[in-house]
Amino acid sequence: MPRERSARADRRSSRTGGVRQLDWRTVRNPYRPIEVLTEDQIELIHDASLRILETTGMDFLHPEATALLEAHGAAVDGERVRFDREMVTELVAGAPASFTMHARNPAHHVTVGGNETVFCTVASAPNSSSLDGGRRVGNFADYQDFLRLGQSFNIIHAFGGYPVEPVDLPPETRHLQALSAFVTLTDKVFHAYALGRRRIVDALEIVRIGRGITRDQLATEPSLFTIVNTSSPLRLDGPMIEGLIEMAKMNQVVVITPFTLSGAMAPASIAGALAQQNAEALAAIAFTQLVGPGSPVVYGGFTSNVDMRSGSPAFGTPEYTRAALAGGQLARRYGLPYRSSNANAANAVDAQAAYESQMSLWGAVMGHANLVMHGAGWMEGGLVASFEKFVVDIEMLQMMSEFLTPLVVDDAELAVDAIAQVGPGGHFFGSPHTLERYESAFYSPIVSDWQNFEAWNLGGARTTVERAHDLYRKVLADYETPPLDDSIRAELDDFVGRRLDGGSA
Known about the structure:
The chain has 505 residues and is of the alpha/beta class. The protein has 19 helices and 23 strands. It has an eight-stranded mixed beta sheet with strand order 3-9-21-20-17-15-13-12, with helices on one face. The chain has a four-stranded mixed beta sheet with strand order 5-6-4-14. α2 (39-56) crosses α10 (270-291), α6 (174-185) runs parallel beside α7 and α13 crosses α18.
């Protein structure tokens, strides 16, 4: 196949719900990462992090964790753990540089690490919103609709958690219905919350059933991931520790993400916040490797700043973007996959939402994040999952994916013969070179309206938000449930039913 045809094949599109979109693709970043720190500065942060762990230490709020750490040489005083720097660096060095996450549909397996980028949905919002329904408390109906959207859009590679919290389900058992919905409504990789041992044990069984495999096979094929947030500053709580232990024991993916808001839970300087982020991440990653040597783990960065006038979290700021780029440098310093996010603090799907998200995405993509959380739908600093913002973000993710497609420069693409045929004057609209590329030459938007003002005005002068609303409704109307073997569905229903009868997690 000639090179120009191969390159254009990457731009193939399909239609879902009447919406033209890019085909499923592995997104690879061909560019050098942007580095905001020098090598010397990275080493200064590294050394400061280890000094923090040696002198101040970090609280691990679970006796199982402190006992394990003490048995391996850490200095333990109650819940406070102080680490020898050689112990930390040796354990962190044992984590894999990349790994595969296995989906129910093998076509949707994803690699985390190297130059590959995995885009995830919004996660953990307590509220949802739409143009017709307004802002509302999270519910299971909206939860399922977000799953349908995430399944339908090819640029979404994985589900980063519950897109919106289904508050109308009982909190002690909602994980059973929420996780089983991932299996029945989607066939992509998904996430479970590390909120105690029982929830993760249930999640491991649900993902095992969904893939139709044994526990032994699950232990060799990471199929579930979880986010473990430190309670900054310098604390890891009991439920997170229990979830981490169960995941690492089963060789499943743990994404360690300190929540270091500069000026609130971290120093009011980006350098200080990064040093604290790095200390917390290294301590938790080291602990993960104690539990499951060689188990897959991701270095997560989520350092941003607060608005010093109000104390409110700010996202998509210059500080956030620089911290995201620096986080990528730190992850590469340790040879670990990197997680970042598409975040904003806007209260409406407006210009602020777009430019803050774009700043966040540039920090993630050019920081070479391997896992981009909250890729589509995040609003209000994480308090809302918006249906219209989901579609706007899909547009931005597709454009990022296209931006990451390497340019081809060869005889066919240089088009010297085509230029000679058209000659001085004339136009290329009808030239053979253009007609050969009519469907695939350039990115085709799903939300953007590239008509002139007169055509736009005659068409009803619809805003981006209105077009995004119509698009998400069309996609939901056209959604098709991915195939699921009847025996798997029966086993899943049986397990969930028995666990629901069993009561609280």
